[in-house]
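Our platform keeps sequence and structure together, in a single record for each protein. Such a record has a labelled line for the sequence and another for the backbone structure tokens. The tokens are whole numbers drawn from a learned vocabulary of local backbone shapes. The remainder of this section carries one protein's record, kept here as part of the documentation:
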Amino acid sequence: MTLPLVSAIPWSRCGRQFAAAGFLLVIAVLALAPARADDQQDPYSVTVKVDATADSAVAARTIARNDGQRRALDDIVQRLSGSADLSKLPKLDDQKITDMVASFEVAHEKMSTVRYLADYTFHFRPEKIRQLLRTASIAFSETPNRPVVVVPVYRDGEQLVLWDDPNPWRDAWGQVPVPTKLTLPLGGVGDLTAIDAEQARSGDPQALTDIAQRNGADEALVAVASARQQGDRLAGLDISIKHYRLGQLTDSSSDSIDAQPGESDTDFFKRAVGIAIGEVEHPRPSVSDKEASLSATVPISTLADWIELQRRLNAVPGIRAVDLLSLNRHEARIVIKFVGKPDQLKSNLAQANLDLDGADPDWRLLPAGAGSSD
């Protein structure tokens, strides 16, 4: 930006006042200048539009700013965690969110006697956001615009393949244009040693972290396509998509796609990849996103066991709350409030190395591989 030159004037009291005013003007102009590219990449800053109506413009502005900073915080959490599930965040009042904001800027401000509109750019305090996410046991990454690594696993009967041929599902991912945020590993020696088909299917945290970081990412998308055969013909695919960040499950979805009459297998696989990509970019609301609860008994031997169990449960996607009913030296009785169905909860618990055994009303929660003590 080029600023006009100011002619020299005598350094008098008036001159000092003029110079001070000029200096403030320069600061104001620079503050309004377009943000630099590196500012726009700041993972702790976000711009939101606000619009509020109240009894007065002043009241509307206060409402708009509080609503704007709350939505901005949600955007920051989703950006850093890679998940739209905000259920683990604690309930924060307006003042607590304000305390997390380092500064903000206002642009395109408009108001009437009762309405207020503007664009707010909020800059959050990184240490406050990190503390919030760690307290909520939400995995996050501060590196912006890193890719998501697609791991395409194909199941045909008892055969499960990732790198081995034939894998028509992986081939189709390589033949279809994908969004720039998704990347497909080349399948070199390093990729082969980082993860295999079974590790991908079961959600092995270390293997998923390894394959993601080998390809310059923190996130992995495991897309498992299971073939449905009708005689010697491929009738359809059952697709499961699980999104992991730093080895932790953040989102999952599933779909069932039928082959069309006269459609070649190659065209069908490519169409299925397109549907899967659409699901990733625009996830459909799940019909099972209804809160449920179950009671479970948890064997424990020490207080440290109970504390470790709480830590693991706090990291499980879909769990809304864990209420303690009773606790003694040998076991804890808890109520788990969660979204979805018990089978989905069991799958999510398995990612935290916890096994949920039994059925209503006698559920037991055990460390993976511990087995039942009955």
Remarks:
- The first strand starts at residue 45 and ends at 53.
- Residues 57-81 form the longest helix (25 residues).
- The chain is about 35% helix and 30% strand.
